[in-house]
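TICKET #2291
ISSUE: user wants both folds in one file
ATTACHMENT 1:
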Amino acid sequence: MEWNVILNQPVSRSLRILGSLDGVEPAEWNALSGGNPTVAYEFLDSLHRTGCAAARTGWSPQYPTLWEGDRLAGAAPLYVKSHSYGEYVFDWGWAEAYERHGIAYYPKLLCAVPFTPATGPRLLAASPAARQELARALLELAGDADVSSLHVLFPTDEDAAALRSAGFLERAGIQFHWRNAGYRDFDDFLGALSHDKRKKIRQERRRVRDAGVELTRVTGREATAAQWDFFTSCYRRTYRAHRSTPLVRHCRLAGTATTPVTFSNR
């Protein structure tokens, strides 16, 4: 569907809701991605085309896009979700609370990259004005749609500021990231730790070495078909061990005011 919205004069933009990336020029989309591979046209389109993130798996793309004539000026990876799998931000408590009160929690709207708990652009915009308009458009879509809520996961600081300004509620979580502080080598890294931690790490590494385990780093382009098959098998076993459903089919293929709206910033 498509309708027109007017931004700050004299700029006029149209808003279109897309069920796929068909008809969008990859170069135009990628120009808005800031070079982030998780929101690259090729990655998102592959998730849709392979059925990993599609209506039948509970991920129905409904991408709001801003256009200045024929030029793409903004977009957001928005999905209608029928479950909460593949998000890595757990809202099962909310779903249970809705159920206890006889209210349907699904469908809900989710602005995120499927299966990717990493911070990145969520309001892909050519300008701050377009970013703010996308945030407002998300709110309007949530208000007009028959959904329980709208969630934006892992936005950048710029996107988070636009979402706050538009009236979103913020819920914060914690992730632990290791950063290289300029260590010369692994021993230099160990030297920054306490004696007990150094001892434990060395013991763990010795056990791995004694077990005959060898680690090799292989990029996606270098991996053989057999390696992709093995990786996919490990991925599926991990999901099933945690009683979840592995939605990626094959890793080689994936080369209103009353509506609560939130975003998670980690």
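ATTACHMENT 2:
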Amino acid sequence: MARARTTGFGLRAAGGILRALLWLGATALTTSILLAPSGIRAAGPEEDLPDGEGKKILLSSCTSCHDLSEVTKFRGYYDRRQWRDIVVTMMEYGAPVDEKQVDILADYLAGNLGKQ
């Protein structure tokens, strides 16, 4: 009797596939657990900033295009002059900030997010 020819994909290959599927399943489960919402919420960038006229302008003007974290991620990076330049540039791009708000916002950003 002739033996059936094997293709090389025997138990060894099946074990490798099973391990890969188990790894993918474990990875998916771990990711879903880590990303699932919990009842505890970390303080967001808005809660880190003190109230004031500058915060009102920041929340109404800057966050019309950006997440607040796009601003707060530069904490400690810019001085007042640089923050003012950014505000003016954003105005040129269409940010809803009027001329009298520029210095209020620049002072606020420099005071709360500026270089120390």
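RESOLUTION: both attachments delivered.
EXTRA DETAIL ON ATTACHMENT 2: Residues 38-43 have pLDDT under 50 and may be disordered.
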